[in-house]
């Protein structure tokens, strides 16, 4: 019997209940299906229209890959629900970073970027990785340098007045909720240290220099456990990814994702978005699938 896992169930639920679809006749037919097809998680209609315009009319090449790039780029530009592209989902330091993936189901090539700073065109950067390198994933500031070297605009501030205000309000709420667990903060918003205080005399001296004693930690009522309940209910305001699948007129498949990650994430965190088989996967011989949800759970199981 298959084991139930919350990441997979969440992914399937979101893909079933929160999607936007475009389909029309006039293309290849296979197994009763009619091509082309564009499908996206969440009701990001403008993104679906942008992809549809490419794959239906043949614009910008008309391929499934081109359509995915067009659709995800539209969502990045529109900052869909503040969860895709620049200007949303600040991390603990108030910075927005981007993740993206694209996969060509015909060639099985994949390109992805993760924790990319200062470049707003995440899905285009992922496509450049796929087309112009032998790698699959580039990360952080090196991904930024690569994207700019390949002609994408940058460096650009990915924060916005809205994201900074959101981060400021969170700080005023003692940095709650957050993604830390089994730690005690030196202040309301860290730095954080393990609850089980190590006996390292050097570290103990550093902490004492900060005016914090081991006894104070042990008596601290603010020992943090996971506080992610605000992510548990499923609605359009607590997700953080667009996942898009396209079948073009030739029957070729492509998938892509783009996200600015989990709000108030620990800097450096990468979720399922740029991980093949976690956020999305596509194969001409099988089909395509994708989801959005709790990426830290989903990437443990590679549900696709």
Automatic annotation (TrEMBL):
Record's keyword terms, sorted: Autocatalytic cleavage, Signal
The residues that the entry says bind substrate are: 269-272, 292-295
Ranges in a coiled coil = none
Q: Show which residues constitute the signal peptide.
A: 1-22
Q: Which EC number(s) are documented for this chain?
A: 3.4.19.5
Site (Cleavage) at 240-241
Any one cellular-component term (Gene Ontology): cytoplasm
- Catalytic center residues: 241 (nucleophile)
> Per its record, what are the GO molecular function terms?
beta-aspartyl-peptidase activity; N4-(beta-N-acetylglucosaminyl)-L-asparaginase activity
EC category? hydrolase
Q: Catalytic activity annotated for this protein?
A: Cleavage of a beta-linked Asp residue from the N-terminus of a polypeptide
Q: How does it assemble?
A: Heterotetramer of two alpha and two beta chains arranged as a dimer of alpha/beta heterodimers.
Q: What is this protein called?
A: beta-aspartyl-peptidase
Q: Which organism is it from?
A: Triticum turgidum subsp. durum
